[in-house]
């Protein structure tokens, strides 16, 4: 079987760990299925890190899909031509889009199910199979696109194996590097407006006032803009807020595993990869009470309202003052994290590809 894959990275990037989805899942599939060929298609050169075994082919198909018309041309002209030339059996795409001009069976990886636009519904109808990251997303697709449940397969996300518990020596080393040797709460996710940033600072203030501790709050530098930095300059506990530059995934894994707790709030439609990363590192997590997160993490985390600074601060205090609670959450979290892996995700995706390929052949 020849599996063609759209590996384009959109201009605005990919949500959560979707880029890692390509790097880990497809690489695993190619290694585990040496008798099959994988064709990776992009509108630009693949990154050097995007390396795969001998049964893969990397194609750069111009033009760049920088606007709607070029994107439409790429999917309805360039992709069908490539699929025909290489005699592909299945085409896998993402970004809520597929080709409307090919008879090759198609599978859409729908990583932003909650944000499906009316103009995208036709692609979901056209594709033979939809893969999404949660039962919640599956229900959204069924309701919005009016397609049957049998056409949708849930393939849960997973944390990279690099995210794992850290020993005391590693924690001390990481804290010395990022938080002046002090324990810290690590915020990850998004900060898309000043109101939420102020909420986060107020929550930390509530914690500091009540506990009088040396605890720090770490924020990735990339989340900051001018307004946030200005707000931080007048903040009472500004010396306890550290803006850190995380240069790669290894550094992010170290910071996550060495945190006292992780705070994670994410945008609608995102895959909650980060929640699983914290759990896999054996670190308590405070996150938003959203159905797609609750489906994965259950009662292994503390839930807070992203618009309630006092409530968020109380959750931080609760973890700090109740060590037994933190231990219970860590134990539950590790057990949950063990249920998810990129290997399992890859196996489920492979089952989907086999199913649509063989079903279409049988029908024909």
Q: TL;DR?
A:
This protein has helices at 18-32, 68-85, 121-126, 135-145, 168-178, 194-211, 226-233, 249-257, 273-280, 291-297, 309-321, 323-337, 342-363; strands spanning 2-6, 37-42, 56-60, 90-94, 106-110, 129-132, 152-154, 184-189, 216-220, 241-244, 261-265, 285-288, 302-304. It is an alpha/beta fold and 364 residues long. It folds into 2 domains: 2-157 and 342-363, Glycogen Phosphorylase B (Rossmann fold, 3-Layer(aba) Sandwich); 168-337, Glycogen Phosphorylase B (Rossmann fold, 3-Layer(aba) Sandwich).
| Number of beta strands | 13
- Sheet with most strands: strand arrangement: 3-2-1-4-5-6-7
The low-confidence runs, each spanning 5 or more residues with pLDDT under 50, are none
- Main β sheet profile: 7 strands, parallel
CATH architecture label name of the largest domain: 3-Layer(aba) Sandwich
Looking at this structure, what is the CATH superfamily of the largest domain? Answer: Glycogen Phosphorylase B
**What is the overall silhouette?**
elongated
